Amino acid sequence: xxxxxxxxxxxxxxxxxxxxxxxxxxxxxxxxxxxxxxxxxxxxxxxxxxxxxxxxxxxxxxxxxxxxxxxxxxxxxxxxxxxxxxxxxxxxxxxxxxxxxxxxxxxxxxxxxxxxxxxxxxxxxxxxxxxxxxxxxxxxxxxxxxxxxxxxxxxxxxxxxxxxxxxxxxxxxxxxxxxxxxxxxxxxxxxxxxxxxxxxxxxxxxxxxxxxxxxxxxxxxxxxxxxxxxxxxxxxxxxxxxxxxxxxxxxxxxxxxxxxxxxxxxxxxxxxxxxxxxxxxxxxxxxxxxxxxxxxxxxxxxxxxxxxxxxxx
Length: 313
Description:
Layout: H1 4-30, H2 36-59, H3 63-68, H4 73-96, H5 100-122, H6 128-148, H7 153-172, H8 176-200, H9 217-241, H10 246-252, H11 255-267, H12 274-312
Subcellular location: Cell membrane
Organism: Lysobacter yangpyeongensis
InterPro entries: EamA_dom, EmrE-like, RarD
């Protein structure tokens, strides 16, 4: 049973994790001089070393064998690794190509897309409020599509890849950090190959030989630290969800796309006109309905045991 101190610690760690995720566009923007594929490869390389070191320290040398011994784990984590690798690649490219606002839209849509996948693949049933939330978000996406002549494909691709990733991880039901460790192991060699190829073909600049052009020690350090910034929020998230109700975590998750959106508009000065505002408002109202419904459901579920106990007294 978690104590009040555990709950407070989990709450603050969850907030810190979502704030860090929300401010990541500022960090990736510092690496704008580095090609996006190189950033992703370094992100995989250094986060793999950190996560694997953590798992070796925590679970010993048999952690990988134990993880892959689960039924379906090998192929499902391989597929989820491809999805998260695609998500990271598209996100970093979008940030450094000036699409932070649209990227934030993807993570606003994501929770609603999760419930749609739950209906499609897990035979879950939606409440009337959840259907209204999904309809409002769909209306927002359709509005943006008709006003700008094409769907917000960056947002949809980010939301869909992350939702499918979450579905696979839900079906497998493996610890978040262990799952990330296996996925990272799968991605490690391709990432290393990308880095070696880039260095040998003049597209890299990490710790170059004397006289060769490079990105400089400052950017090299940022690339290494980027691996830690990939792993630490997820480790913090895994710590928090064991100590904080999921309904609370579900509300806190909107911190990240909100900060991304504010960064895109007020720091990077990306376009956000009235047409975009209308589309976002539909989606924000849908999210408000979804979040309120979730909070009311959680309150009813927590009140039910108390009512039963009172009836028995």
